[in-house]
Design brief:
Blueprint: E1 6-9, E2 15-19, H1 23-30, H2 33-39, E3 43-46, H3 55-64, E4 69-74, H4 76-89, E5 92-97, H5 103-107, E6 125-135, E7 138-140, E8 143-147, H6 148-154, H7 162-176, E9 182-186, E10 189-192, E11 196-201, E12 223-228, H8 233-242, E13 248-253, E14 257-261, E15 265-270, E16 273-278, E17 281-295, H9 311-324
Parallel strand pairs: 2-3, 2-4, 4-5, 5-17
Antiparallel strand pairs: 1-6, 6-7, 6-17, 8-11, 8-15, 9-10, 9-14, 11-12, 12-13, 14-17, 15-16
Helix pairs in contact: 3-4, 6-7, 7-8, 7-9, 8-9
């Protein structure tokens, strides 16, 4: 997100922050997010995992009670739930990167090593207008995944080791052609029976079939589409290892992307959360609909060509998978 897309923001008088104390291995607790937010004058709601809680309802109730800013300290899935309420209410939204990977915060230029630094937006903020993606009626800030990508999210090990689980499952899953038969329609493009589909809120910057990389901007008004089909685990591993797009369909489009499937509902990964959606699933982009407040001074966007630290792990593991199946393609 470029800095010239920002504008100064006036202070919120009744900020409301939803805090997940368990997300990211307890980041919010370690950095005393709740206490620091209260010191800034924010009302804080602590998520209790032992109780059934509808966070969208919690956020809407806060809006009805007069909140003039909504914020979340937690992972991307929680961010998306509350961001949807902020967007529909026209209120500013604040991101505290207290989750595990915090992709949305990374693309906003926030400090993921010190989530408490994001609270400076309550004192000295700029406003960014960013896009919001929708899959059916559900909003997403990063991406929604189908087929093999969604299977990764369903795996219990994924939350603890996202990259390792991806490398372990994805090549074999693609090779076996498991899961529902998918058909993707985007404008004039049709992709028949892909094994994995990733639809992102703005396209990813680097040729990355796993969707682990960052986006060059969050206000292009475009959905990114990655669709993959592979015949062998070695072929898939070689693609992950090299970062090449051979055998993959990639698209950036302002059009709706519709995912058809043979069953009436399909498992989906929505910002890393396992959900089910009714088919067909219509994905759309809502341009610049989300008002995000970020600190005026923050780490910013990394140089072009940067890859996240986990990418080297993916390449090494994919190389081993390729050799173990007797095929190696450079």
């Amino acid at each position: 997100m470029t800095e010239n897309a920002s504008r100064p923001a006036t202070g919120a008088r009744r900020p409301y922050l939803i805090v997940n104390p368990h997300s990211g291995g307890g980041k919010a607790s370690r950095f005393r997010i709740a206490e620091r937010a209260r010191a800034f004058g924010a009302q804080v709601f602590l998520i209790d995992r032992s109780l059934p809680q509808d966070l969208a309802t919690v956020a809407r109730r806060a809006v009805d009670d007069g909140a003039d800013l909504l914020g979340v300290a937690g992972g991307d899935g929680t961010q998306a739930l509350v961001a949807e309420v902020a967007a529909e209410s026209g209120l500013p939204f604040m991101v505290i990167p207290a989750g595990t990977r915090n992709h949305f915060a990374m693309d906003l230029g926030l400090d993921r090593e010190d989530p408490s630094a994001a609270l400076e937006a309550l004192r000295d903020a700029v406003e960014l207008r960013v896009d919001l993606g929708y899959a059916g009626e559900r909003a997403f800030v990063n991406n929604v995944s189908f087929g093999a990508y969604a299977a990764l999210v369903q795996d219990p090990a994924y939350r603890e080791d996202k990259i390792g689980t991806m490398v372990r499952i994805l090549p074999e899953f693609l090779a076996r052609h498991q899961g529902p038969q998918l058909v993707v329609h985007a404008g004039l493009l049709t992709v028949d029976r892909p094994d994995a589909v990733l639809v992102s809120n703005n396209p990813y910057q680097i040729d990355d079939p796993a969707g682990l990389d960052r986006r060059a901007q969050l206000d292009s008004g475009l959905l990114g589409v990655l669709a993959a089909r592979a015949e062998t685990p070695a072929e898939t591993a070689a693609r992950l290892r090299s970062g090449q797009m051979h055998g993959l369909t990639r698209l950036a489009t302002p059009d709706d992307v519709v995912i058809h499937a043979d069953p009436p509902v399909v498992p989906v990964g929505l910002d890393g959360e396992a959900v089910t959606l009714r088919t067909p699933v219509r994905c759309r982009i809502s341009p610049r609909t989300l008002r995000v407040w970020v600190p005026r001074h923050r780490p910013g966007v990394a140089p072009t060509g940067w890859r996240p630290p986990g990418w080297a792990v993916v390449q090494r593991a994919a190389s081993l998978v390729g050799r173990s199946h007797g095929r190696h393609t450079d």
